[in-house]
Specification:
- It comes from Spirosoma taeanense.
- This is DUF779 domain-containing protein.
- This protein is of the alpha/beta class.
- The chain has a single domain (4-114), classed as Hypothetical Protein Aq_1857, Chain: A.
- It contains three helices and eight strands, in the order E-H-E-E-E-E-H-E-E-H-E.
- The longest helix has 14 residues, at 8-21.
- The protein is globular.
- The mean pLDDT is 89.
């Protein structure tokens, strides 16, 4: 069981971006810029802080969010999707005429019991 998955459409966009920008990472924004959209960056372009939580990976890309925001989302399963349109963010997909978005649902009790642990802080400290 993963905390984060993605749609085939999102996977397609990520592959285009990876070809153009190399390794990628995601950070779930906390309301700045583009609401609460997942933001895609070239790996290392967004500085992970000591209180950022790594939820897992989607197609080889680390997916992070702030610890405070994780408190609100820790009982949900997130699915990364794309939709036509331009968001108001610095996320890499914007020039493609699409933007990433989150579709969420509450996790069932048995899913919660089988989730892998999350990691807080930069991965270099693991």
């Amino acid at each position: 069981m993963n905390r984060v998955d993605l749609t085939p459409a999102a996977a397609e966009v990520i592959e285009k971006l990876r070809t153009q920008h190399g390794p990628l990472m995601f950070h779930q924004s906390g309301g700045c810029c583009d609401g609460s959209s997942p933001m895609c960056y070239a790996q290392g372009e967004f500085i992970i802080g000591a209180s950022d939580v790594r939820l897992g990976q989607i197609v080889g890309c680390d997916f992070w969010m702030s610890e405070d925001q994780f408190e609100y989302w820790k009982h949900t399963h997130l699915t990364i999707d794309v939709t036509p349109g331009r968001g108001a963010s610095f996320s890499l997909e914007i020039p493609l005429g699409v933007r990433f978005l989150i579709r969420s649902r509450l996790l069932e009790p048995e899913e919660l019991a089988n989730l892998p642990p999350v990691h807080t802080g930069p991965l270099e400290t693991v």
